[in-house]
Amino acid sequence: MSNMMRESQTMAQTKDENLSYMSDMALELAHMAEDSGLATLAYLFRMAALEASTANSELNVPDDLPSQVTSH
Q1: Nearest Cα to 26, choosing from 61, 50, 9, 8?
Q2: How far is the C-alpha of 63 from the C-alpha of 65, rounded, in Å?
Q3: I want to staple 22 with a disulfide (CB 3.0 to 4.6 A). Which of 11, 52, 60, 67 is the partner?
Q4: Is the pTM of this model over 0.70?
Q5: What are 49-63's pLDDT values in tens digits?
Q6: What whole-number distance in Å separates Cα of residue 41 and Cα of residue 46?
Q7: Distance between CA atoms of residues 6 and 17, nearest Å
């Protein structure tokens, strides 16, 4: 059983590293696009970087959040 837990931890760590790498690469591409005067493309790469950097934290958001809101 501990082997499976180790594998899932390794997979989660690999996913974190991949998302971090994607975020870094997208920011680098955004800088290159900006230097080339491609503001729209730079914006899209910045959005991709933001998406990658927040993808992991979004998985931890509870699905029942809207049901906690009460109307008066």
Answers
A1: 50
A2: 6
A3: 52
A4: no
A5: 999 888 866 655 555
A6: 9
A7: 16
